[in-house]
Design a protein that fits this description.
Radius of gyration: 18 Å
Shape: globular
CATH class: Mainly Beta
Number of strands: 9
Order of helices and strands: HEEEEEEEEE
Helix content: 10-25%
Strand order of the largest sheet: 1-3-4-5-6-7-8-9
Length: 144
């Protein structure tokens, strides 16, 4: 009996890990593409991005990240997500400086909302999309 119970526990752990990887893959696939900056909210005040001047961000395969800011050189970095957490977590890592912005995100097919500490890379990951020390960035998926 113990042997069967042990076998079941091992099977459940492997199945759970496979399901978690499938969730991560699906979330990463949905995130991939180019997103235009729509607005930024700091301490409850929303600042819309000027049309065509807000820049964009590209989530590419294998965790590659490209920041595009009009009139400036592109910045390259990486990203990591954990879609299994609640709320979903995202880390944006600048390649040159090595600074990591730890945040949370919500995603649908056309809108990406991310929240980070208003204190920058030294701040703690927000627990939700509210609060005085939370920087909220909203992106709209670029149309092909």
């Amino acid at each position: 009996m113990k042997r069967y119970l042990f076998g079941f526990v091992v099977f459940a752990a492997i199945a759970g890990a496979a399901r978690s990887e499938a969730t991560e893959d699906a979330a990463e696939k949905m995130l991939q593409g180019e997103w235009d900056l729509a607005s930024v909210e700091v301490e409850g005040k929303r600042l819309p991005a000027p049309a065509g001047k807000g820049g964009s961000i590209v989530f590419a395969k294998d965790g590659k990240l490209i920041w595009k800011d009009p009139g400036k050189p592109e910045k390259i970095g990486t990203y990591k997500i954990d879609a299994g957490k609640q709320p979903k977590q995202i880390d944006l890592i600048a390649s040159k400086e090595g600074a990591t912005m730890r945040g949370i995100y919500e995603l649908d097919s056309e809108k990406l909302q991310m929240a980070f500490s208003a204190d920058g890379p030294k701040g703690k990951r927000p627990r939700d999309f509210k609060g005085d020390k939370v920087l909220i960035v909203i992106w709209k998926r670029q149309k092909p």
